[in-house]
Amino acid sequence: MKKLPFTIDDKHFDSSTVESFIREFWQEEKLFETNSNLDKNKNVFSIILPPPNANARLHLGHVSGYAYQDLMGRFHRLLGDDVLLLPGKDHGGIQTEVVFEKELSKQNIRKRDLSRDEFFKRCYEFSIMNMKNAREQEEMIGLSADFSKDIFTLDDRIKKTVYDTFVSMYKDGLIYRGKRIINWCTRCLSALADVDTENKDEDSFLYYIKYGDDLVVATTRPETKIADTALAVNPRDERYKKYINTEIEVVSPEGTYMLPVIAEDDVDMNFGTGVLKITPGHSPEDYKIGLRHNLPIKTVIDKYGKMNESSNQYKGLKVIEARNKIVEDLKKMGLLVKIEAINHSVPVCERCKTIIEPLISYQWFLSLDELKRKTILAIENEDIKIHPKRMGKNLIQWLVSPEDWCLSRQLFWGFKIPAYYCGGKDIISDENGNLIEKYGGSGGCGEIIVQENVPDKCPKCGGTNIVAEEDILDTWFSSTQWPYATLLSYPGYFEKYFPTSVMETGRDIIFFWVARMIIMGIYKYGEVPFKDVHLHGLVTDKEGKKMSKSKGNGIDPFEMIQKYGVDALRYSFVFANSIGKDYRLFDEKIKGNRNFVNKIWNASRFILQNISDEGNIKVATNESNLSPIVKNNEDYIKFSEFENRIIELNKKYKFGKASEEMYEYFWHTYCDVLIEKYKEKIKEKDIEAMEVLLTILVSFMQLLHPYMPYITEYIWILLYEKNIVTENSISKTKFFNIS
RNA sequence: GGGUUUAUAGCUCAGUUUGGUUAGAGCGUUACAUUGACAUUGUAAAGGUCGCAGGUUCGAGCCCUGCUAAACCCACCA
């Protein structure tokens, strides 16, 4: 072993010196590397670590997650388990694409100026750079992962699994190409799933517009008037009963046309006038109503957010421009009754905050009905245990919604959809303005071929004019396969480690990720991909507000590490917190834990300084070779009870409680009571005093190690150098009273 | 509208499968100590109607009901 950088004569514990020393030591010893050999005497414990997005430095959220994951891994190593912590890096899909677009714009380059391949290449380089940073930071915080197995989500081995799943889901009829209303981002120029959108409050106007002679409709979107295909009223609404199932003549700036009036329970009698215009082509709610009443679907807005050619006067105008102009025109025609100010929420793109334009479009979908049902059963039967339990209810609530998952994205950064069209595909519109996708128009039979590799000819007609799908897969389609896709990438790992022991992640991505990982696992292997789900809360500032760049209330974890050390920061994430609860982090909290680190250092220092070298004191390695002197010592007996208690708390994921009790025990029992009690005796080299204090110290280092890996390992090495313990690393040991 | 959570000292939080003496900790505040393993320390003190109102009970911070306030999630917002 290298010369120790730091001795027991140093009063103040210098965390960064010790951290880099220990880090090198761990790397040299290759302590956390794994293999596919199954040892039947050992339990297997595995966590596939949630991969951070390779588009920025790690933030507090990542570090807090790693604190929990590493804690569990190290704890199970000390139980004697065969532990795998498998690290990875996420290409981050649309998130990274948007971040990198901003990078490009700094160089005055627009994304669509580059080819897809060129964009992909540059974004890949950008990601590689970030991945290196992330990796360094992961090592810095003491993550005991097997870095020789670090894997990127765009790795070819991952791609193989993802494509296999896509193809088999297509063959099973779960994945299909379909037309429906989807969330469209006019800036990203892509379809988005519901979870990729969020709601934003917006000040807008409610326009009251005359429809026919008697009816007035209140709408925020007058520009979609041209695409109306019905009016709807509540069947219980006495005011409008007589109009139901009639047709009224509607005058508009684009001419006069007839609209049916339908009865619909979903219409709120108290909103506006109680008359709703139905625009199935541009509103998800209206789309559903349209399906129920078999209404035609008209489209007036294109993918750029501009009015399309079905409008004569507004063609080419952006939505807002068209809205203002049509309002002017309606006013001139005497059709505008009044305008009210309104604050309502609108869906926006989760990434770039552009207002979503609901559009009718052909996309790839995954039917989830059956899989969701099975997933609910798995949760209800506790095939998978969610901690905290109440989050399971949230999950089930989300799973009962029947929406299919829109898998295709019109983006550059990600896996291409493995689909091909014999003779290509075209979008045409029929006489009613309905969009129809036609296949095989440019010389082919129109067969859709779904397979991993590019086909050289059509398996149906033998044609060679094969056109590849240009869309890419939603990044969540691949990341929800992460638990098995990673393990399948290394021979024997899947067999040994699947299903994994725990999925540990933030409570905020339970729908995005956790729910759909379970769904995919159930599809692929008929079983849940992990046995337990542990969800940690979000880190907030002292006022309980979410940290964000724009608010400027964020804490840089690496600044805190420089100031107080990794151990203090990591302890602050778990200290006195309960599972799934958000926790407030601030400087004084971390500082308090730094003081605890220093207390541990000084107490250990005192013991080590006063141990007689000639006495050749050794500490028992397990309960059976414990000396009777220690075994019967009342202070040791009490400690032993405490030790069992902490181990039990860890098993129950009660890390907050355990950390609190360890703090309390070490500071106020070990230091304040026991050291004081044995102080004089120890200086007289009394064997019982030395053995009791040492045995407790050694065991306590093991107990605390998952929570504070650096200082405990360093003290352990000092004990090893003094021949007090026989292994040179805590990671090679087991808890004292585990046989 | 549906679901979930929280409310305990100035601040941040504990208060435990199971209700039980005088409700605890850290930070902060105040006083004192200091060549001592540790001033990143020690000893002590002040500080609480346990959100409000009922109920169950010999006994409620804990269980039940209602209310108030705050936060989060889902749906909708024409």
Describe the overall structure.
It is a single chain. The longest helix is centred in the last third of the chain and has 29 residues, at 655-683. 44% of the residues are buried. α8 (369-380) crosses α13 and α16 runs parallel beside α19. With 739 residues, the chain is an alpha/beta fold. Strands 6-5-14-16 form a 4-stranded antiparallel sheet. β5 and β6 form a beta hairpin. The model has no long low-confidence stretch (mean pLDDT 88). It is elongated, with a radius of gyration of 32 Å. It is built from 21 helices and 27 strands. The structure holds one RNA strand of 78 nucleotides.
> How many H/I helical runs?
21
The Rg value, from CA coordinates, equals 32 Å
Query: Strand count, sense and closure of the main sheet?
Result: 4 strands, antiparallel
Q: Residue-averaged pLDDT, rounded?
A: 88
If strands are numbered along the chain, what order do they take across the biggest sheet?
Answer: 6-5-14-16
The end-to-end distance, rounded to whole angstroms, is: 29 Å
Classify the secondary structure makeup into a structural class.
Answer: alpha/beta
Low-confidence spans: none
Q: Strand content of the residues, in percent?
A: 15-25%
Report the strand count: 27
